[in-house]
Amino acid sequence: MGLGDKIQNKSEEVVGKAKEATGKATNDRSLQAEGVKDQAAANAKQAGEKAKDAFKDATDNK
């Protein structure tokens, strides 16, 4: 995973956490749900990138 991708995915996760917290604080369920969705998307991207890295590492070591 490239450093740029890591930073982008982490920032997306942080923004999602902020949205979720703001939604909770303001009792805005829609914003809270959007924050949770953003976090899930960022985590899925991170997992996909980690899987690609693991596959690349496994094939490079042969």
Automatic annotation (TrEMBL):
Basic and acidic residues bias (residue ranges): 7-22, 47-62
Ranges annotated as spanning the membrane: none
Region (Disordered): 1-62
Family: Belongs to the UPF0337 (CsbD) family.
Superkingdom to which the source organism belongs: Bacteria
InterPro entries: CsbD (IPR008462), YjbJ_sf (IPR036629)
Domain CsbD-like: 5-57
Protein name (database record): CsbD family protein
Coiled coil: none
